[in-house]
User: What shape does this take?
Amino acid sequence: MTKVTFHKTKSGEYKGFICSGHAGFADYGKDIVCASISVLVINTINSLEEIVKEKITVQMDEESGKIVCSFDRPLRETSKVLVDSLILGLSQIEKQYGKRYCKLEFEEV
Assistant: This one.
């Protein structure tokens, strides 16, 4: 299962997220759930860095499937929309394929 945990402050400000694990929907190289999650997460990170020039810290471990993304300062409105879009996409995957393969969580930090 891939778990994506979003960190937010009490006031609702995004602080980052952690994506960990492999979905396990199908064999390696054929896992459309894992591939979909990866595309959404990596595209959001790339968009935050390249398009809106956010200061973020990213750590990746391909073998374990773990990506840690921390926001170094409060996000601008455009960036919040990108993260909201990521959450929407992931929640649709979770809804369609089930929490057995993709699980979203939100933690207050």
Observations:
- The CA atoms of residues 22 and 41 lie 13 Å apart.
- The mean pLDDT is 96.
